[in-house]
Design goal:
There is one protein chain. With about 700 residues, the protein is an alpha/beta fold. Helix content is about 50%, strand content about 10%. The protein is built from 30 helices and 18 strands. The longest helix has 21 residues, at about 330-350. The chain starts with a strand and ends with a helix. The structure holds (2S,3S)-3-hydroxy-2-methylbutanoyl-COA. (2S,3S)-3-hydroxy-2-methylbutanoyl-COA binds next to helix 3 and helix 12.
Amino acid sequence: MDTPVSLRRDGNVAIITIDNPPVNALRHGVRKGIQNCVVAARDDASVEAIVITGAGRTFVAGADITEFGKPPQPPSLIEVIATLDEVKKPTIAAVHGTPLGGGLELTMGCHFRVAAPSTRLGLPEIKLGLIPGAGGTQRLPRLVGLEKAVPMILSGEPIPAKDALAAGLVDAIIEGDLVAGAVAFARKVLAEKRALTRVKDRDEKLKEVRANPAKFDEIVAQHVKKTRGLQAPAAAIDAIRLTLDTPIDEAQKKEREFFLKLVGGEQSKAQRHLFFAERDAAKVPGIGKEVKPREVKKAAVIGAGTMGGGISMNFANVGIPVTIVENNADALKRGMATIEKNYQTSVQRGSLKAEDVAKRLALFTPTTDLGAIKDADIVIEAVFENMPIKKELFAKIEKIAKPGAVLATNTSYLNVDEIAQVTHRHGDVLGMHFFSPANVMKLLEIVRGKDTAPDVLATAMAVGRTIRKVPVVVGVCHGFVGNRMLSARGIEAEKLLLEGALPQDVDGALTEFGFPMGPFAMSDLAGIDVGWRSRKERGVRNEIADSLAEQGRFGQKTGRGFYLYEGRSARPDPEVEKLIVDASVRLGVKRRNVSKEEIIERLIYPMVNEGARILEEGIATRSGDIDVVWLYGYGFPAWRGGPMHWADTVGLKKIRDRLHRLAQESGDKRHEPAALLNRLADESGTFDSYGQQKAA
Ligand code: T1G
């Protein structure tokens, strides 16, 4: 018998407890259970008040996302809340953990909300490409006002209990036993004969904006971000606007229409795919709960350059002491100055308090003595991307580092197994590939070497989560997952320039697609010279990028690259256009018109093809892992779900056929469809179904 909801009594108070681990999601059985219990308590004359609470680590964290897209089963959440609305006895929601989405909406069917001190309350639907669909856009503004509700709904970010109390979202903070406190609160309401005003009937906080509707647009303007093609933010604004002039029952119907349109749309499907893909990425084959991570209380980072400095900040930001090593005092001084400057920038932006900067800087031990890493639990090397230099350093590190220390390299391309070979503790070595700026970018590619010990991998994953990164485990190959696919895109981008496109055409098509920036603007930001030097080492040439570098055009840092720069603003440069046209002539390439569609196909299809090879080789466990890498490491638009999910929506047969034609037209073997892509295209399969088959 499925009984995720129970009803018990504490004298004249009925207590309804939702118990559906892990996060009390509102699946069908839960909604039905709540409905039945509310009706039972409502109709029991001996019950004078009702408390609704959740068992386990959190109150209801929302609707059950896995049920979206499936046939609806009554009662819906709206029906459950409507039942609550009609209860003439005090109803109190007692919340802890993260009452989110439908969970918070459920509480807004109650007369009162009380919360444990550490509770975080919010409506995160926008992160799933949705809007609140059970009254949230109408009821939250009635409780906290539009100034507070608009940013909560548009950002999807939760607020802490004390802010919720101040805003009127909760009526009391309960220290100690939450349910006992809620029952006492209920009895106080009864004793004081407090008015039982339904949330849906509370308009006082809407009066000011209703009197001056233009104020609503001002509020929205303050909080609406650049949405680059996202549908949910506009729908959320349209729904919230209904609070100004539409009776709530009618407004909730409209909200529901907006919600249903989004839930059936590609964008929300893509963002829901990423929600689960991010959680699946944390599940590493062969690393079950029985594999215990090693304890990490002290970290050491070798190299205080851009990457080393950013990596070190991650540890200090979460209170872990970090030794940062440079091979000379000047470089160390520069590195520490950059770290301090980064912190001061956060203070100016208001995302950090001045006293926190001092606390964090106090956790740094800057030194030029490599010996100082001797008592670190994890050592991360972030020196120049050069194999001989890294090998020489690892040979030294392993002689100093204490037994059991995890030895990680931040290489972005090189062979981690080859680096491990210079040590006598291969099992302790792996890659931890951070992305620049390392103190900001959330992605962490954890490179599993062929001898990396399971508990070392588990330690790196745990450290990754502790420093608030999204860790994804990848195998050893050139460029791992992200950079390997990026190279496939980069080669094609250069070819498109030779064939007729200009940097602004290619970047324009990609930003229109949803990326924050295109390959050439990105190259100018990272520095054209970085790729140029590594290509020179490998004896390969990108005709246009290298010609620019040879002219000292390194990008933003020299004020000119693929674009001309005034500060950060870029504009096309006729000199670059001439350089490109001359290169086409020099290489005998006849220039032609290149459409946006072709640009997108030529940039992303080869990435997908490389992604398929990466899956075949087992460098990535699931296609979802690749999507998470591209979301958090390269700005792939979330509403497209990542390159592999997007490919599934385009259709693998179409992509395979286009790549095949491209291979024939260009003679470039790289475009020959990967075996996996061929197979899935022939079977009308998807990368997602391939992942499920493998997981089964
Ligand atoms: N539905 C189904 N499964 C869920 C879920 C949900 N809402 N939330 C979490 N899970 C699963 C998750 O996949 C994982 O499974 C396990 O629970 C633990 O999650 C009508 C339409 C609550 C802050 O968007 O943000 O309500 O991997 O690893 O880090 O208006 O989960 O173990 O098999 O993330 O402690 C709105 C989503 C839904 C909140 C906990 N709610 N969840 O974080 O654990 S839309 C949300 C979270 C809605 C209404 C609308 C987080 C968390 P597995 P976890 P965590």
